[in-house]
């Protein structure tokens, strides 16, 4: 069971929340009414200026009390205020643009004037200080007076030119005004029929212009489509050219491969033909050969064995002969060495005897 104090607390909280919501809604409504009152006051000020004392005066009271404004009236006032605000914004924008233009002109004029002053200062310093004949840097008053007189004469000439230009512009303006006046007088002399004819011609020309504009629009659309088609065609052509290049390269590779394969095939065919010819010759030789008989084979085998035995005997004889030959050669070599030694001894003995005879003859003399 809920206690009475707890129920009272819950109800008080609900009441506080409800009061806060109502207060918030009331404040929002008051803000909205304040904004509406400000807008309506501005509308009244626009339509009827306030009195000198600043009071609006008593409000009009309809029969049966004060009448509330309908939504249509509020909407009308809002639209009027919106138009007025837009007009004020446009006026302020125009004024701001004019101010910006005037400030730009003033800034440009100031820049030009500053440049002219800098130029004059540079020329003054160049003519009077740098080109001075006095090495001490002193400048005579005559040079200064002459310099400023020349500047004044140049300014006067410039003023004369500007005055002449101004007069010519005034004359042009007068001519234009005279032409406009003549055109306006000619327009006053025109009759209603002429105006109607001019209107008809104007409508015809406007119709022709619209028709030509439509044709021009169609031509532009056609041109755009043509350009798109041309670009697509160029893209396709580029792709086809690339594909053609790839195909040509593949074709060249295939041709080279086919040529290599054909050369290899020709070599294989030649090898096959040679092999066939060799096989044919072998078959012919094989067919032309006669098989030996068994007795002939036995006789040939026995003869071969006998020949092998004879060959072995001859090999032994040759070895024995070689051994004997080597012995004879060795003996002959030893005999030759002995003969050579004996010959050397004999020659030495003969030389000794000759020397002894020579000594004896010398002693006898």
Architecture overview:
The chain is an all-alpha fold and 365 residues long. It has 5 helices and no strands. α1 packs across α2. The radius of gyration is 71 Å and the shape is elongated. This is Cilia- and flagella-associated protein 263.
Question: Which terms would index this structure?
Answer:
365 residues, mainly alpha, 5 helices, 88% helix, cell projection, CCDC113/CCDC96_CC, coiled coil
Q: Order of SSEs, N→C?
A: HHHHH
Helix content: over 70%
Number of strands: 0
Strand content: under 5%
Task: State the distance separating the first and last CA atoms.
Answer: 192 Å
Provide the low-confidence segments as ranges.
Answer: 54-65
What is the C-alpha radius of gyration, as a whole number of Å? 71 Å
Number of helices: 5
Coarse morphology: elongated
Question: How much is the average pLDDT?
Answer: 78
> What does the main sheet amount to?
none
Structure classification: mainly alpha
Family: Belongs to the CFAP263 family.
Domain CCDC113/CCDC96 coiled-coil: 153-322
InterPro entries: CC_CF, CCDC113/CCDC96_CC
Organism: Plasmodiophora brassicae
């Amino acid at each position: 069971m809920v206690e009475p104090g707890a129920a009272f607390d819950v109800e008080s909280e609900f009441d506080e929340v409800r009061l806060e919501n109502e207060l918030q809604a009331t404040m929002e409504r008051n803000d909205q009414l304040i904004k509406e009152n400000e807008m309506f006051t501005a509308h009244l000020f626009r339509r009827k200026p306030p009195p000198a004392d600043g009071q609006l005066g008593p409000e009009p009271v309809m029969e049966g009390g004060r009448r509330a404004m309908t939504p249509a009236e509020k909407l009308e006032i809002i639209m009027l205020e919106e138009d007025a605000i837009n007009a004020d914004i446009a006026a302020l924008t125009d004024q701001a643009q004019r101010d910006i233009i005037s400030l730009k002109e003033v800034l440009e004029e100031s820049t030009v004037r500053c440049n002219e002053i800098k130029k004059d200062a540079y020329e003054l310093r160049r003519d009077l200080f740098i080109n001075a004949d006095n090495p001490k840097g002193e400048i005579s008053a005559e040079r200064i007076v002459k310099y400023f007189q020349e500047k004044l004469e140049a300014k006067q000439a410039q003023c004369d030119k500007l005055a002449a230009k101004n007069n010519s512009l005034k004359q042009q303006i007068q001519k234009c005004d005279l032409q406009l006046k003549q055109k306006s007088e000619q327009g006053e002399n025109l009759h209603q029929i002429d105006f109607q004819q001019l209107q008809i011609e104007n409508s015809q020309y406007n119709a022709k212009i619209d028709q030509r504009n439509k044709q021009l629009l169609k031509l532009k659309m056609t041109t755009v489509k043509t350009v798109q088609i041309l670009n697509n065609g160029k893209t396709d052509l580029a792709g086809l050219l690339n594909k053609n290049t790839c195909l040509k390269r593949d074709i060249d590779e295939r041709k080279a491969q086919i040529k290599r394969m054909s050369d290899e095939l020709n070599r294989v065919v030649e090898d096959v033909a040679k092999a066939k010819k060799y096989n044919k010759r072998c078959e012919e030789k094989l067919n032309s050969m006669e098989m030996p008989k068994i007795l002939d084979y036995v006789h040939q085998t026995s003869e071969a064995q006998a020949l092998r035995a004879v060959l072995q005997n001859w090999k032994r004889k040759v070895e024995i002969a070689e051994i004997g030959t080597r012995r004879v050669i060795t003996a002959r070599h030893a005999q030759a060495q002995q003969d050579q030694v004996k010959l050397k001894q004999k020659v030495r003995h003969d030389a000794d005897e000759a020397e002894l005879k020579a000594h004896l003859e010398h002693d006898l003399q």
